[in-house]
């Protein structure tokens, strides 16, 4: 792994040299800019891979494990973390929805009462629909 990273770094540096030689003779700035951006991205990725390699083998002190075994553990941990986090977020959303239903339930009853007191008569079918809706909300809040 270390030799592969060194080879990648050497090839990247050689590419920079080739780009410098090409740019002396070529005036096409758009292609030069694209190649320059690409080489910057490659150099950054190589640097990140070297840092990950150094951390995995030196700081974590796992020289006896193969790199794939170490990274497999990291991937499994990330998967467990993500699923647990998603479950917690779903639970928080359900509780927030339940709180919101409880807040609006009282307002609907208050509006129904104010409609009766204000002199406006609520039709029988509308009253039946509101009563059914309130009953459904009460049933949902107990679950």
TrEMBL record:
**InterPro entries xrefs:** FH2_Formin_sf
Q: Which domain of life is it from?
A: Eukaryota
* GO process terms (BP): cortical actin cytoskeleton organization
Question: Gene3D superfamilies from the xrefs?
Answer: Formin, FH2 domain (1.20.58.2220)
Q: Which GO terms describe its cellular component?
A: cytoplasm; cytoskeleton
Molecular function (GO) terms for this protein are: actin filament binding
Q: What protein am I looking at?
A: FH2 domain-containing protein
């Amino acid at each position: 792994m270390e030799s592969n990273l060194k080879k990648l770094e050497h090839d990247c540096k050689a590419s920079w040299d080739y780009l410098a030689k090409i740019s002396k003779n070529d005036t096409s700035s758009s292609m030069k800019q694209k190649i320059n951006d690409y080489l910057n991205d490659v150099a950054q990725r190589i640097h990140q891979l070297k840092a990950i390699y150094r951390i995995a083998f030196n700081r974590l002190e796992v020289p006896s494990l193969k790199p794939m075994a170490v990274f497999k553990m990291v991937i499994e941990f990330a998967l467990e973390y993500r699923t647990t986090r998603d479950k917690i977020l779903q639970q928080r959303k359900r509780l927030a929805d339940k709180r919101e239903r409880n807040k609006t339930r009282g307002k609907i009853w208050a509006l129904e009462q104010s409609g009766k007191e204000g002199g406006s008569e609520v039709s029988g079918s509308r009253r039946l629909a509101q009563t059914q809706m309130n009953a459904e909300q009460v049933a949902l809040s107990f679950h």
